[in-house]
Amino acid sequence: MNKPIYTKSLGRPFFPGFKSVYGIDWPSEPATSIILDDNKIKSILAIQNLKERTFNLVSLYLDAIKHYIEDEELVVDIWYVVVPNTVFTLCRPKSISGKATYNKQQVDFFNSGQLSLFQEDNEDISQYIEMYESDSDFHDQLKARAIYNKITCPIQVMLESTLQFHAKISSEEYDDDMKAHLAWTHSSSLYYKLGYLPWKLNAVRDGVCYVGLVFKKLQDTGRKKGYACSAAQMFLDSGDGVVFRGNIGPWISKNEKTFHLDRYSAKALLSIAVDAYYAKHKRYPNELFIHGRTAFSDEEWKGFQDAVQVASDINLVGVAIKESNGFRLLKDNSDPKSQYGVLRGLCLIVNGKSGYLWTKGFIPKTETANHMEVACPLYIEVNRGQADIEVVMKDILALTKLNYNACIYGDGLPVTLRFSDKIGNILTAIPDVNWAAKPFKYYI
How many domains does the chain have? Predict the structure, then answer.
């Protein structure tokens, strides 16, 4: 990270070294380190059942961090959790799983809600419930349990192969272009997790707040079949963000393709965002844009309107953003000087409420495109409230430049929706708990 990495492609710019970019020394030695017993890791990974295997491995890493925090005075800014590549293959939802070692009778009574029969062994039962309802992804469960246990510094999970610039599965070493790419993506994410912004947007509109809705279907464990968790990502004009967890309920439509809140839960969720904005700025936003993947229902919108009644001058706008996979715009490339497709940032206004926006396309600055396929546009529709469609599109295009996690110059989706699936996975990685609002950096 301290050395320059030279490249051959404009699309993969060379990495000058961490201090040259960010003005911060990259230490040659960690502030502290905890070495886990390799035999313990191997014995846990040998457990047949995926749920038990993942839960126990997360506990091994998390307990080491918790014990350090309790026993040591030195404050750690960020924890690097380095895992062997076998965790990547054995501790994810689609990894191989054998039969569980816990008592099948407990499963039956747990699903029927008759846990009182096991009160004499309550501690074992509660741990079983936590394990059974937790997600099988090591990364998501570790981050969720760290937030729940109030670990106040971010966690960065890394594979051993990444530290060696090797591919995840094979031992093949990356070329210099890929090494520079990884250095940029990791360093910008690290800088953000340390509490700084790697870059800021120019000429942003003051007093504007953007909220992206997040929904994640819960595991069908019997008690909450068909339920989903709701959440919101709030991004300010500065580019920084906060994540709020909302209510769990039957938000899934009959076709299981869309999600909608009831009025009470919609108000509760947006009220948290509005209050958080006021706490930071000592005033309410002038405009609040809610981004979703589908049009908002009447009940949902009434709840959002209830939430902004605390101030009479908030302009509330609902925007649906969809990837339009069935629509392409092709360019005549008969001119030898025109070898690429449409420009990123091109828009096609349909009417005063809707239009198409190409967030993928040719970028003159880098002399390349930010995609491999024929670019598909986003279909953008202002379906609630009043706003200029061109202003809405400019804002969305700007929000595609805030992917601090991967140092992407121009992403395909705005940050309000880009990480919704990942955030949803972390929010539902452990059983239902009271979930405090946390900065966006804890989820990436």
Answer: 2
